[in-house]
Amino acid sequence: MTIAESSALGPGTSLVAFSLIVAECFGVEVPTFQGEGPSCGHPALFIRLSRCNLTCTRCDTKYTWDWTRFDPRKESTKRTVADLAGWAASSPVELVVITGGEPLLQQERLVPLVRELLAAGKRVEFETNGTIAPAPELLLNGVRFNVSPKLASFGINEAKSIVPAVLEAFAASGRAAFKFVASSVADLERIAELADTHQLAPVWVMPEGTTTEAITETTRLLADAVAARHWHFTTRLHVLAFADTRGR
User: Fold this and answer.
1) How do residues 157-193 score in pLDDT, each as one tens digit?
2) What is the dihedral of CA 158, 159, 161, 164, to 10 degrees?
3) Partners of 127 in the beta sheet?
């Protein structure tokens, strides 16, 4: 199905034939929150898609792409758009977070899903690494993008993870916040350089870490410098609340 075909589908259209590669869905049976960024602390449902176009050393969801360590047959399944939309509609929670992996790898199939979610009264946030420009059909009222460009300190070559034209497209959309994972004050200098060069705003900084101790230590290391730049600061609530338990 092409983007044009997807955009022609209206709410209520039969979507049984269209499927996405999914790693996991959670938040209906066991409630949870959005753990990061502008909606941190909001009740949320999560649709985590499988596959990614980056191979970050510090990635905490390698089960979506690292097939040297994980079996894709066990870690992913195909679910239809109709199934996913029905799953989300079964909950009164308004916010649906579509994450990954890198969800925009499958954005042609996401167009009808997003339309169904909006028709059901949901709002949608994408968690994306900022290397793939969003299709115009996804730039809708009720849809936001948490764009998280990965720095070299995250264990990736920035020649792959920083795509200027895509970052500028997100900035121009008016529907994006830019959320950077940082582990040192030096990272903040790099974030400032990227924000100034590509006019990225608003900027959110999130301390790197998968334990309460690591997040607390990095928060205290970065807090004064983040505040001095008048940026937003976010924690990783799911780590603090649920000890980074998968599916929470």
Assistant:
1) 999 999 999 999 999 999 999 999 999 999 999 999 9
2) 110
3) 146
Angle between helix 164-173 and 185-198 (nearest 10) = 70
Condensed to tens digits (0 to 9), the pLDDT of residues 214-246 reads 999 999 999 999 999 999 999 999 999 999 899
Domain locations in the chain? Answer: 3-179
Q: What is the DSSP letter of 134?
A: P
| Secondary structure E strands in the chain | 19-26, 32-33, 43-49, 77-80, 95-99, 123-128, 143-147, 176-182, 203-207, 232-233
Tell the residue number behind the tokens 């959110």, with chain if given.
Answer: 204
DSSP state at residue 151: P
The CA distance from 194 to 166, in Å, is 13
Q: Of 174, 240, 230, 234, which is closest to residue 204 (Cα–Cα)? A: 234
- With pLDDT > 90 as the criterion, what percentage of the chain qualifies? 91
Inter-residue contact 64 to 46 (CB < 8 Å): no
Tokens standing for residue 224: 């004064």
47 C-beta neighbours (distance < 10 Å), count: 26
SS3 percent helix, strand, coil of the chain, rounded to 5, is 40, 20, 40
Cα four-point dihedral sign 6, 50, 60, 189: negative
Please state the pTM of the whole predicted model: 0.92
d(CA 171, CA 11): 28
| Contact between residue 57 and residue 154 where contact means Cβ atoms under 8 Å apart | yes
**pLDDT of 15:** 53
- Which top CATH class is 3-179? alpha beta
